[in-house]
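Quick illustration, no need to memorize.
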Amino acid sequence: MVLYHSAPDYSLKSKFNNFNQHKSQLTDPSVPKRVPLKTSNVFTSNLRIFYQNIRGLQNKIDELLLSWDTNSPHIICFSEHHLHKDQIQHLFINEYKLVASYCRSSHKHGGVCIFIQESLSCSTIDLRDFCQEYIIEACALKLDFNSINLCVLVIYRSPSGDFTQFLHSFGNIINHVYNSHTNIIICGDFNVNYLETKKKIDFNWTPF
């Protein structure tokens, strides 16, 4: 399995100067850069998962599609899509379908979502009861891929969200999706500085 996390890379901006004829609507100068992450040896298939904190998805589809070239991911995960429920339901990404999402209803921005290639089948895991704006925003899917039972979970926590509440809710989500026959992949942005010592955050936490 290949898991990609994207990070801003301004050096790639010149690659897209000749893309004006495609009328890309990207306004953010950051361009996704695929960074391989180490995963367990249990994933011997060629499943490709892409994650990015997109900070507004509406006008960035063209740039994303171009950045993948021919090696497009099977699953796309976003945090901070900044869309309302009706907007994300009508968002079109060619050859993909929306299978899971969470949208804020009381505040702006935030939100998480998962798209999957149209040729793949999966089921949505309902996490609405665990979500709370700013504290934890989550969505998940369950997928059987080459005899592997897989749960893909996307999490977002606002920098202003209470971290203790986040850990409690996160633990409840893990307990909800976990079983001994399922492998869990967690993508997301927790907005936590693990090197920060002043806050003295206790990370001795076990969800099971």
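The longest helix spans residues 163-177.
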